[in-house]
Amino acid sequence: MKSWLRDFKDRLYPIWAFGRFIIRSRNKHGVHSPFVYDLLTQVLSDTSKYSDYVLLDQFRSTLRHDTSFIEITDFGAGSRIFKSNRRQVKQLVRHVGATPYRQKLLWRLANHFEPIKTLELGTHLGLGTAALQLGCLKGTVTSVEGCPALAKHTAHNMLTLGLEKARIIPNRFEDFLKGLEQEKFDLIYVDGNHTQEATLSYFNQLKNHCHQKSIMIFDDIHWSAEMSQAWALMQKDPSVTVSIDLFFWGLIFFRPGQVKEHFVLRV
Q: Domain for residue 66, yes or no?
């Protein structure tokens, strides 16, 4: 297939996938699992205004006014927005990274589950990192970023925010995962390398670093047809008991004694 036609189809896919999501999704009235119902009503759909949101908004504002440039090293599926690897920070925060809504949702998930050990694959500018660390200050966040320049920039920002327990590691995901040994995490957020092969590889490795109460979050599960396929395969894994499709994220749980069930939820 010609490259321009493939690119055109790739750009259209999320629109088609969203239409399918709307048809299949349900709200709280269609959820009969107590665990998922509580998660939906108390966390996912929570509209409360928390004081930490102010700090997150201030951090985003600082990045939106940052005129410095970063030379991006991209090991993933590439960008549909930028044609050059030399990118301005204020443009990056506008087009890439956690949106304000997703950033605050990350905070609520961390605040609710109180993960002592959190792993993030894909630091970028640290919008998600800051949310995860602020959401559970008693825990630690280990965030891995393949681009050295981004890792350096974000590590400095975490110190500026007073989030010293957020550790930024400049390393490729594959290399980092090889050295994990037997370490377990309470929450894992994967936001990087949006290809089916890489996503499934991360899942298959990371599920061995989860325990029965761990939560895994995969970003952009409908970014492309192959990402949707990867998400479908993760749902079917025997170790997964509950999976939740939010369209932009996929949530995975390994709860013992839970009937295996998949939910497609509007939030």
A: no
Residue type, 196: Q
* CA distance from start to end of the chain: 37
Output the tens digit of pLDDT for each of the chain's 267 residues.
Answer: 556 556 667 788 999 999 999 999 998 888 989 999 999 999 999 999 999 999 999 999 999 999 999 988 765 544 444 445 788 899 889 877 789 999 999 999 999 999 999 999 999 999 999 999 999 999 999 999 999 999 999 999 999 999 999 999 999 999 999 989 889 999 999 998 889 999 999 999 999 999 999 999 999 999 999 999 999 999 999 999 999 999 999 999 999 888 899 999 998
Residue of 127, 103, 121 whose CA lies nearest to 170:
121
List of E strands, the chain: 69-71, 86-88, 117-121, 140-145, 166-170, 185-190, 210-219, 242-245, 249-253, 261-264
In a domain, 74, yes or no: no
Q: How far apart are CA 210 and CA 68, in angstroms?
A: 38
For residues 208 and 214, give the distance between their C-alpha atoms in angstroms, rounded to a whole number: 11
Query: Is residue 68 in a domain?
Result: no
**Against a cut of 0.90, is the pTM above it?**
yes
What CATH number does residue 164 fall under? 3.40.50.150
Read off the amino acid at residue 29.
Answer: H
Q: Total domain count for the chain?
A: 1
* Residue 255, in any domain of the structure: yes
